[in-house]
Amino acid sequence: MTNLVEVIAKSLVDEPEKVVVSESLFGSEKVLQLKVASNDMGKVIGRQGRIAKALRTVVKAAATKNNEKVIVEISSDEE
Fold first, then answer.
1. Nearest to residue 12, comparing CAs of 50, 61, 63, 48?
2. Which residues, 6+ apart, have CB-to-CB distance to 77 below 8 Å?
3. Bigger pLDDT: 78 vs 29
4. Which stretch of DSSP H or E encloses residue 58?
5. Which residues pair with 33 in a beta bridge?
């Protein structure tokens, strides 16, 4: 799942070398933390959050296929 998020995010941003995806468990859920450069945040989130929503939808569909529950959090490398 981390590879999927990483590939999609790297295709969206100007600085793909700064894309980092980390995975952690929170109860029965996987939490994927996507970090991008601060100037790429707008490209990953999109207008009114459309790109972020689409990214979460794709990950949710892939997770459902594997009977998993996954949450995607997006932050900049400054946080």
1. 50
2. 18, 20, 35, 36, 37, 38
3. 29
4. helix 50-65
5. 22, 73
For the domain covering 2-76, report its CATH number: 3.30.300.20
| 50, two tokens | 């459309």
Q: What is the pLDDT of residues 1-51, one digit of tens each?
A: 999 999 999 999 999 999 999 999 988 899 999 999 999 999 999 999 999
Q: Where along the chain do its domains lie?
A: 2-76
Q: Distance of CA 41 to CAs 23, 50, 53, 63, 73, Å?
A: 19, 13, 14, 24, 12
**Could you give the count of Cα atoms lying within 13 Å of 67 in the half-sphere of its Cβ?**
0
Name the pLDDT band for 57 (thresholds 50, 70, 90).
very high
| pTM exceeding the 0.70 threshold for the entire prediction | yes
